[in-house]
Amino acid sequence: MLKINEKIFIVLVTMSILSTNIALAQRDGDAFRTYSPYTLYGIGDMYRPGSVANKAMGGLTYGVRDPLGINSYNPAALSIQDSLVVMLDFAAGSKNTYSKSLTSKTSANAFYFDYVDFSLRIAPGLTINVGLSPVSDIGYDIERKESDPYLIYQKGDIKYSYAGEGGINQLHWGAGYKLFSKFSVGVNMHYYFGSINRYYSTEFITDPTLGNLFSDSKTKISKIGFTLGAQYHTRLNGKTFLTVGAIYQPKTILPTRKETTTITVGETSTDTARNVVSSVKNIFMPETFGIGFTLRKTDKLMIGADYSYQDWSGFNFDGKSDNYSFSAGKSHIYNLGFEYTPRINNIKNNFKRWNYRAGLRYVSTFMNCNGQNITEQSLFFGVGIPLTRRFGSKVNAAFEVGQRGTTKNGLVKETFVTFSIGINIFDIWFQKFQFN
User: Fold this and answer.
1) With the CA atoms of 117, 298, 58 and 394 taken in that order, what torsion angle do they form, in degrees rounded to the nearest 10?
2) Per-residue pLDDT for 89 more than 90?
3) How far is residue 76's CA from residue 290's CA, in Å, rounded to a whole number?
4) Which one has a higher pLDDT value, 313 or 9?
5) Residue 290: how many CB atoms within 10 A of its CB?
6) How far, in Å, CA of 154 to CA of 170, rounded?
């Protein structure tokens, strides 16, 4: 067995490598984490929280309390961790998106590093956690040609291009504490950071003497926020347990620094460039409230449901497009999921020790586009595969099939398939052996 300090070194190196890969993957403009015209404005697609095991159950998190997994989204759940155990959980994923409007179709795919989490119990009832994960993602590349006959008659063919990439990440530090035998509390501190890059151009194809316009803006974000969590855990009868959990995240204003460079290029005119540095107001992480429960029958069956609410009212959708009008409102998210393990102690038949998971998710998003509220529906399923014959390390996999949007009012309907795979490393560091 490795010494503790050697294990800590391995964990830190692993987290450093994965963290770098996550950041690089989100800055690579040739490989978006997401690809959607619904990221034209604001801070983009909001990340689906939770581990791969949580995602396979439809995103169930608030009432999940598992001694063999890290639930960092509700920090109160950390308090269940055993005193001898440390855990490292990291994951990667892929997403295939098929989009269609009334006039066109397109598809895109992406592969990305997802998250990394590490947890360690440091005192009776007190467990700490550190991790890195995305918060939001932006990815789009759209072109359109001018359709106004009068403008075409005056200027000739005109092409408009819109592109964007980037997003927000979070480095979080969490702690969960068992306040009473049935009640736990927790807190997560988040350091939000990232950049949003948007590009816009107007090109006069027919008449090269007219000045083409190219605009490049980069918005940098950096801020600290926090989330509070709580869980109540009780036995209903000899084999059935109920856990009720909740989280609250106050509204966090995100200070932003925006640098915009605009260049006008003409065949016969003098090229001009302008650089402007400014701040963008009303960019924030919304006030969030979530509540949920799980019912668990020993180690065989768990079912649960979650509800969360976010208020995006007043959000500044900083961006540019002539095709879409955006406004922000309130978001409602519903999750339903279950996990079934046929016989966790069966060492002869490995398949009976697998965790079989499935779930549903429905989102009434905060986005209103061209007068249409955007909704999203997803179906999830997945498995947890033990890597050893004892409790602990496992490979988790999750599949998602979903739809978002509509083809009404000139909008886009998206069908997407995601696959996530994670490794949860479970180890015992602090055993005292009688013989050496």
Assistant:
1) 40
2) yes
3) 13
4) 313
5) 23
6) 49
Model confidence at 171, pLDDT cuts 50, 70, 90, reads very high
The type of residue at 320 is: K
Strands 105-123 and 301-311: unpaired
Pick the closest to residue 359 from 335, 341, 332 (CA basis). 335
In degrees and rounded to multiples of 5, residue 163 shows phi and psi of -145, 150
- The dihedral over CA atoms of 142, 258, 261, 321, expressed in degrees to the nearest 10, equals 30
- 């009212």: which residue's tokens? 313
- What's the rounded Cα separation, in Å, for the pair 231 and 208? 65
Q: What is the DSSP string of 259-326?
A: EEEEEEE-SSSPPEEEEEEE---S-EEPEEEEEEEEEEETTTEEEEEEEEEEE-TT-------SS--E
Average pLDDT over residues 210-229: 90
Structure confidence by residue, pLDDT tens digits, 369-417? 888 899 999 999 999 999 876 667 899 999 999 999 988 888 899 999 9
Counting residues of the chain whose pLDDT is more than 70, the rounded percentage is 86
The pTM of the full predicted model, rounded to 2 decimals, is 0.86
102: which residues sit within 8 A by CB, 6+ positions away?
407, 410
Given a cut of 70, whether residue 1 has pLDDT beyond it is no
Please report, in angstroms and rounded to a whole number, the separation of the first and last CA atoms in the chain. Answer: 11
Element (H, E) at 396: strand 394-405
Taking phi over 0 as left and psi of -120 to 50 as alpha, with beta for the rest, 50 belongs to: left
pLDDT band at 235 (very low <50, low <70, confident <90, very high): very high
C-alpha 275/C-alpha 67 separation (Å) is 53
Q: How many CA atoms lie within 13 A of 71 on its CB side?
A: 30
CATH class, domain 4-428, is mainly beta
Give the type of residue at 126: L
